[in-house]
Amino acid sequence: MVARFFFLCLMIFSEGALAAYGMRTFSSEYKPVANSVVQVTNMPRVRSQDSFGICYAFAASVLYDEANCAAKNVADCSAVPDQEKVSPLDMARFSVKVDGGQDSTDRFNYEGLREGGVAALALYNSLEVQMNAKESCAPFDQVVSKTKDPVEAQKIEMAMWKRFQDSYEAYKRKTRDCVECGLEYARDKAQELKDNFKLKATNQEILQAFAQESYAKFLDKMLVPEECWDFKNSLSLKGSWRLGIYPENNEKTNYDKMLAKVKEVLSQKRPLAISFCTQEPLQAKNQKACAEAKDTVGNIVGAGHEVVIKGYRRVCNAKNKCYDALQVQNSWGESWQNANDDGWIDAKELLDRTFYEGQSLTWLQKH
Amino acid sequence: MRLFIVLGFILWAQESALAAELALDLYNSDKKSYQRIAITEVEGVKISKNCLKSGKMHCAAWKAVGQKVALIPTPGVGTVGNPAARYCHAHNANNRILLDAKKREYDYCVFSDGSMVDAWSLYNKHFQDR
Questions:
Q1: CA A146 to CA A23: how far, in whole Å?
Q2: Which residues in B lie closer than 8 A to residue A150 (C-beta atoms)?
Q3: Helix B83-90 vs helix A150-158: angle between axes, to the nearest 10 degrees?
């Protein structure tokens, strides 16, 4: 009986604790300490990644767009139009290591869009290639379903990537047995997928997508039209930039050192991306285990996430109990920012969830 | 005269209870244009004004506000996604991104009857730490 009560409490508290995802705000009794604020104020707009697992691409895009604003002396970075912003969807191709011997500056070696990735790698490769598609050319809202039936739309949205993957794998199976059968299937599927998703790709491009040898490349062809590969539809980073990362691989660090690095970078007016574990309650011992957490039937339902840090301050209550706070720009839309004190959260909670692993922090700095 | 004053007061109180209103834009892929959605706030939840019928809240979005359901993680991915967007799906609603005048993005659960509720309003009502 006691055990059942304990377990029930654990479930209740777990569900309540689930809401914070490692980003815990302070109660109103805690006030900012005067002169403690270090902040990057001219930031791109807060975005929503919808339900798809490409947070890293959104974090990388925020850093990229902010750097361009800084380089171009844009007065209001939040008002930059889509023609001058990078597409997070396109950024999702760059979190991959190019095989040795291949040209890392060639955009054609980054074919394929992937859920799950790291902002550091995406940014590093973006800097190499210097050719990202504009948001206006590969708009994120193209994944919005046209289907009126919410049940079907729900299945489509939840399984959009899986649905594409199922179509791709079904085509591969049919083509193995009968090439004509595969082609017929692909033609039928192309129109269905185009009707069900607001795709900019033409039917011809969708058919070409089916011919790709990997699912990631198939997705790329489906969502990022050929025209986005034209120079006139792409952006590059103005000025000379390099990637900062902390800690370097094999470098030992801890809370105090990592916080000091965050404050140092912020004081140079550079925002940072941070990768961490949102698992509640936190059971993983490292970021790999966090990303590979499984549900009761063995499906991976990982809890990795990336956000952008844009501010630091110290907060204290009337009893002079004080904490460090970091301001994050999350890709969960404006409502999340508004409901979470504009992103001001407990620094210790957040940094602990990096497990102080290598490359947890990433930023762009001028040469 | 007193009756009119009292009635006027009641109407004013009701409007005040509905608090601040705002307008957001939702892209209509059929019409290839944005449609304006009137949003109001009721009991701390931002919800489309079309839920208000004859002075009462009556729509699928409001029904969802009163009905906590289990969260559904998306299998196969090592990252968490947007939990509120996925919570829309748990309520058999689509998640849509609505824009304000400055093109700031808000996730809304859109139901088959056309009613909508701010996804994080809904999520926090059911799951936020006390």
A1: 34
A2: 92-94, 110-112
A3: 140
Indicate yes or no: CB of A19 within 8 angstroms of CB of B124.
yes
- Spatial CA neighbour of A139 closest among A228, A60, A44, A52: A228
Ranges of residues in chain A whose predicted pLDDT is under 50:
1-18, 144-159
For the cut 90, the answer to whether the pLDDT of residue B24 exceeds it is yes
Residue window 54-83, chain B: list those with CB within 8 Å of chain A: 71-83
Compute the nearest-CA separation of A81 from chain B (Å): 10
What type of residue sits at position A165? Answer: Q
Tens of pLDDT, residues B109-128? 999 899 999 999 999 999 87
Tell if the CB–CB gap between A18 and B71 is shorter than 8 Å. Answer: yes
How high is the mean pLDDT of chain B? 82
Cross-chain residue pair B80–A45, CB shorter than 8 Å:
no
Other Cβ atoms less than 10 A from the Cβ of B15: the count is 11
Nearest CA in chain B to A198: B29
Which among A158, A304, A334 has CB closest to B80? A304
Residues of B in contact with A346 (CB under 8 A): none
Residue B3 — φ and ψ, nearest 5°? -60, -45
Yes or no, beta carbons of B120 and A144 under 8 Å apart = no
- The Cα-based distances of A334 to A51, A299, B80, B106 in angstroms read 15, 31, 18, 5
Q: Looking at beta carbons, which residues of chain B come within 8 Å of A332?
A: 82-85, 107, 120
pLDDT in tens, A127-166: 999 999 999 887 776 554 444 444 444 444 444 555 566 6
**Model's pTM, two decimal places?**
0.82
Can you tell me which residue has the tokens 């959104």? A58
Q: Looking at this predicted complex, what is its ipTM?
A: 0.83
Count of CA atoms in the C-beta half-sphere (13 A) of A260: 6
Chain A CB within 8 Å of residue B85 CB: yes
State the DSSP code for A300: B
Q: How many domains does chain B have?
A: 1
Q: Summarize pLDDT for B68-114 with one digit per residue, the tens.
A: 998 876 655 667 778 898 888 889 888 888 989 988 999 999 998 99
* C-beta separation of B1 from B12 below 8 A: no
The whole domain housing B105 covers 2-127
**What per-residue confidence (pLDDT) applies to A18?**
44
Cis before A281 (ω within 30): yes
Complete domains list, chain A, with CATH: 22-87+240-366 (3.90.70), 140-223 (no CATH)
Contacting residues for B33 by C-beta, under 8 A, at least 6 apart: B27
